[in-house]
Amino acid sequence: MRKRGVNEADSSAAQVKKPRVKQQKKDRTSKQWMKRCLLLLFLIAVSLPVAVKLPALIQHLVYTYRIRLPYFADLNRPAEFSLNHTINMYLTTEEGISLGVWHTVPDSRWKEAQGKDLAWYQSTLSDGSPVFIYFHGNTQTRGAPHRVGVAKVLSALGYHVVVPDYRGFGDSTGEPTEGGLTVDALYVYNWVKARSGDSLVIFWGHSLGTAVSTNTAVKLIEQGVVVDGVILEGAFNSARQKIPGHAFSWYYWRFPGQEYLFPEPWAENKLVFPTEENLKKMKSPILFLHSEDDHLVPPHVCEQMRDIAASYQSEERVKLVMFEGSLGYLHNGLYRDHRLPGILKNFVDSLS
Q1: Given 155, 172, 207, 213, the catalytic residue
Q2: What is the spatial distance between Cα 261 and Cα 306, in angstroms, rounded to a whole number?
Q3: What is the rounded CA–CA span in Å between residue 149 and residue 166?
Q4: Cβ atoms 163, 205 nearer than 8 A
Q5: CA 242 to CA 238: how far, in whole Å?
Q6: Which stretches of the chain drop beneath a pLDDT of 50?
Q7: In 241-252, which positions are buried (b, 16+ CB within 10 angstroms) versus exposed (e)?
Q8: What pLDDT sits at residue 174?
Q9: Sign of CA dihedral 170, 174, 177, 183
Q10: What is the pLDDT of residues 114-144, one digit of tens each?
Q11: 294 is catalytic
Q12: Tens-place pLDDT, residues 150-170
């Protein structure tokens, strides 16, 4: 009898516990659902502004990557590039745009240049020696070996060399655009001209720089200014030669499938580079330099441009020097030719 009473008590207790367990499970389930709802509301609150700002975020991501070669090079120290009579400076061309610029004085002044500050370098621009502004090609920086090679050739001839990195290039700030590069070039020209007195100021454009040079020369003509002379090395003509891809595509970071999700980041950055039309308007003496084995711009493209420029000026004012393909200079190597110094000196002397 006593045993049955215990069993009956246990059974009654189990019956009481069973509803309690169900209630506890129900309470836990309700709490879990509440937590999930709160988490969902939190995710919506966070993701909504992110979704609204997503294009800007993507744009920020793709705009923050660019190739800078050579790696680990300090552009603030030109001597590391074996330019020991060169100073680095920064010019502000527009609000928020700072250009890294090198100024190399004539080689004859290299000893005098040691330890000198920016003011001294600026004062030398009015010493009567011709001043070259070198507008370089696409990608890399003012420290690229072939650009340093050009600076050395010109300096050895007794000329000043000013080499800017366009916006978005090297340690210059901003995003590269055709209009922006022209603005930068105009600013550099005016900066040099304000300090060079009556010295000759000559443009040397290489590859992309040929388009920048002609764009800038025409803008100056519209202001009543004619550049003393223009050298176009490895010039391309977008009117007759398709540019392989976007000229500034190196600046943007791309990931697989991006084109299916987002528009190309440079879609609104249209390129024109009307070099052929610019040549019809130019009034400066022009010297074309080209290699027969140029792997990016066929020589006949350069020959066509020379003919167009000469037809609007004269054969005397527009020259072309073609270098033999057997020399292997391709698109960037003309600075190595032993005849180049004489060719350049003859051109500069003709401007005087």
Answers
A1: 207
A2: 44
A3: 19
A4: no
A5: 6
A6: 1-4, 6, 50-65
A7: eeeeebbbebbb
A8: 92
A9: negative
A10: 999 999 999 999 999 999 999 999 888 999 9
A11: yes
A12: 999 999 999 999 999 999 999
Task: Note the pLDDT of residue 65.
Answer: 45
Mean pLDDT of the chain: 85
pLDDT at 15: 54
Q: Which residue has the tokens 């010295």?
A: 199
Is the preceding peptide bond at 176 cis, omega within 30 degrees of 0?
no
Report the alpha-carbon distance of residue 47 to residue 39 in Å, rounded.
12
Report the pLDDT value the prediction gives residue 58, as an integer from 0 to 100.
Answer: 40
Q: Give the span between the Cα atoms of 274 and 271, in whole angstroms.
A: 9
Query: In the prediction, which pLDDT does 37 show?
Result: 76
Of 165, 184, 294, 337, the catalytic one is 294
CB 246 within 8 A of CB 266: yes
User: What does pTM read for this prediction?
Assistant: 0.79
pLDDT score at 45: 64
Helices (H), the chain: 2-63, 110-113, 118-124, 145-156, 178-196, 208-222, 258-261, 275-281, 299-312, 340-351
Burial (CB count within 10 angstroms: exposed 0-12, middle 13-18, buried 19+), residue 292: middle
Contacts of 290 (CB under 8 A, 6+ apart): 233, 234, 235, 297, 299, 302, 320, 321, 322, 323
Cβ neighbours of residue 273 under 8 Å, at least 6 residues apart? 178, 211, 215, 236, 238, 243, 247
Find the Cα–Cα–Cα–Cα dihedral 259, 260, 263, 264, rounded to 10°.
0
Longest dimension (CA), the chain: 132
Nearest to 157 by CA among 132, 126, 120: 132
Which one of 155, 284, 331, 337 is the catalytic residue?
331
Q: Are the beta carbons of 77 and 83 closer than 8 angstroms?
A: no
